[in-house]
Amino acid sequence: MKKNPAIPYILILVFGIVLVFILSFKGLGDMKEIATDNKGAGGAKTEETASAKPEDIYKNAGCIGCHGDQYQGGMGPSLKGIGDKISKDEIKGFLTNGSDKGMPAGLVAPEQMDAMVEWVSKIK
User: Fold this and answer.
1) Mind listing the pLDDT tens digit for each residue in 64-106?
2) Which long-range contacts (CB under 8 A, 24 or more apart) does 87-91 make?
């Protein structure tokens, strides 16, 4: 007598559906805990960002991906000597609003903006 070759596939299907339901209910049970953890993490992240140095913000905000690890540029322009080319207000405008050439807005927290503008303007 030959065995039905579909039986292993049916067993895997049933096991997968049961697993999805179990994990869904587990996730529903943890929903409030996760929401509470995210609120706490947001507060800690804000404090961490507020005390961060501009160099750390540059590395962590993703600026390094476009402007390079030595500020030499790449996808974005070089930041070397940028303070001699444009004003601090223009630098602040780019950091706050981004640009239509691919610079995203809001990478620097408002409480760090002045320190970041000062630092960027002095890159040589």
Assistant:
1) 888 888 888 888 888 888 889 889 898 888 888 888 878 888 8
2) 88/117, 88/118, 88/121, 91/117, 91/120, 91/121
